């Protein structure tokens, strides 16, 4: 089989064709060119089997749970709680933005949802308090990549599905890298805030005010604890945990906090269904594309060529990180993981890299790519929410991207950062 499908795929992407169609049309046209129409039925079977998976049911459930929490006003309570903790520091609203992303990550696991929900609330508030609009948008976009790193994470579920890696192990492995990015972004924000004399958001809150804000946020913030605790303890599988998240979010927002109305449910269900359908179709098409890569022999050829560059594992890790960072600038994290995971992971596993370690390297790297130009989806969402040009946001983000690149370097060359928690709980 020729490699014409690769060039067709690249051409379609360059022309602005949606990724899903580029992934399907490329192999389809290539089979016609090669006179292999007999494989069309196999192509369709792969498309269906790529979506027909019990573990993948976790994705729409987590999306629905995030929608329920977001529409139920949970975002506002998280922001208020963060303000009572760190709002009194210089550049307090920017710091609140970052910390809110960490807490919101435990509810949605989506960088786009984080940017949209927090951006609509915090970008106008930051601008009114003396921050430049581009800085407010940059902080929102940079911190939102924490969403798919700290559990629950849709991207990690996709990787675990395609590469047969423990979901619970990946969730545990993502906690420390996510917190490291948070701390790094806060340090950089503090330096910038002092240099530009950004304002203090509010006076230091009393412990009673903090306690009151925490009480309102407690039940939503308990979500990741219940999910991760249940998975680790073996009470339920990751897919069942996603269903538990939906039930828990429904009960909390509708009956306990009373922040969700029954009339909002149809719109929430429609939004979750549209997002889920898009992702599952993307998964199916990416699995099909990955199958074509394997059948055509490209995977083996690429593995051989990579091994010929150098036998030094540390240098190969540097090269693959640069490659993934470049891919992340043009391709969304989901398709990139589904296409490249089956190609790259076996190479590095054969070199002695732990499957879980490489999984986190790949997921974090491609997640950061969501916020990098020219095709970073988070960057576009931040531009849409703020009304600022993407190039201005991208320039303002450079110090934050440097921090995230440093974290990628640390987790790559110091495996203990990602592997300690999974090992403690017996997942590595």
- Globally, the shape reads globular
Q: Largest beta sheet, briefly?
A: none
Q: Assign the structural class, choosing from mainly alpha, mainly beta, alpha/beta, alpha+beta, or little secondary structure.
A: mainly alpha
Give the helix tally.
22
Series of secondary-structure elements, N-terminal to C-terminal: HHHHHHHHHHHHHHHHHHHHHH
Q: What quaternary form is this?
A: single chain
Say how many strands there are: 0
Mean pLDDT across every amino acid position: 86
**Low-confidence sequence ranges:** none
Termini distance?
Answer: 38 Å
Proportion of beta-strand residues: under 5%
Helical proportion, percent range: over 70%
Please compute the radius of gyration using only Cα atoms. Answer: 22 Å
Tell me the count of domains. 1
Structural commentary:
There is one protein chain. With 428 residues, this protein is mainly alpha-helical. It has one domain (4-424). Helices cover 77% and strands 0% of the residues. It contains 22 helices and no strands. The chain has helices at 4-14, 19-33, 40-51, 58-71, 74-86, 92-108, 111-128, 133-144, 154-163, 167-196, 207-221, 223-232, 238-256, 265-295, 298-309, 313-328, 333-350, 355-368, 377-386, 390-396, 398-413, 416-424. Helix 7 runs parallel beside helix 19, helix 10 (167-196) runs parallel beside helix 18 and helix 14 (265-295) crosses helix 17 (333-350). The relative contact order is 0.15.
Search tags:
mainly alpha, globular, 428 residues, 22 helices
Write a brief structural summary.
With 428 residues, this protein is mainly alpha-helical. It has 22 helices and no strands.
């Amino acid at each position: 089989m020729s490699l014409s499908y690769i060039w067709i795929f690249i051409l379609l992407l360059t022309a602005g064709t949606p990724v899903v169609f580029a992934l399907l049309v490329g192999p389809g046209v290539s089979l016609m060119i090669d006179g292999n129409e007999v494989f069309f039925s196999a192509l369709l079977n792969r498309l269906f089997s790529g979506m027909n998976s019990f573990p993948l049911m976790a994705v729409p459930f987590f999306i629905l749970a995030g929608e329920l929490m977001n529409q139920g006003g949970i975002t506002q309570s998280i922001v208020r709680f963060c303000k009572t903790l760190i709002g009194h520091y210089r550049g307090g609203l920017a710091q609140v933005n970052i910390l809110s992303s960490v807490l919101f990550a435990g509810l949605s696991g989506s960088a786009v949802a984080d940017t949209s929900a927090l951006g609509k609330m915090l970008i106008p508030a930051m601008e009114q308090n003396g921050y430049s609009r581009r800085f407010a948008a940059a902080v929102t976009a940079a911190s939102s990549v924490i969403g798919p790193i700290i559990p629950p994470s849709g991207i990690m579920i996709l990787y675990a599905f395609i590469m047969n890696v423990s979901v619970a192990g990946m969730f545990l492995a993502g906690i420390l890298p996510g917190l490291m990015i948070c701390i790094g972004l806060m340090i950089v924000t503090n330096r910038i805030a002092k240099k530009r004399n950004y304002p203090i958001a509010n006076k230091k809150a009393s412990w009673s005010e903090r306690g009151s804000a925490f009480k309102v946020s407690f039940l939503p913030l308990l979500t990741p604890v219940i999910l991760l605790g249940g998975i680790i303890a073996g009470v339920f599988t990751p897919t069942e945990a996603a269903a538990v998240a939906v039930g828990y979010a429904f009960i909390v927002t509708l009956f306990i906090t009373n922040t969700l109305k029954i009339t909002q449910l149809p719109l929430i269900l429609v939004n979750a269904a549209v997002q889920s359908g898009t992702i599952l179709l993307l998964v199916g098409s990416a699995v099909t594309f990955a199958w074509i890569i394997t059948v055509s022999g490209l995977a083996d050829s690429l593995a051989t060529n990579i091994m010929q560059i150098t036998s030094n594992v540390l240098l190969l890790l540097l090269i693959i990180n640069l490659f993934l960072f470049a891919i992340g600038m043009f391709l969304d994290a989901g398709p990139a993981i589904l296409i490249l995971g089956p190609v790259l992971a076996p190479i590095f596993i054969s070199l002695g890299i732990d499957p879980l370690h490489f999984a986190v390297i790949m997921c974090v790297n491609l997640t950061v790519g969501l916020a990098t130009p020219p095709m970073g989806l988070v960057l576009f969402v931040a531009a849409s929410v703020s009304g600022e040009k993407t190039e201005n946001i991208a320039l303002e983000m450079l110090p934050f991207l440097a921090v995230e690149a440093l974290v990628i370097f640390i987790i790559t060359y110091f495996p203990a950062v990602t592997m300690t928690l999974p090992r403690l709980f017996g997942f590595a």
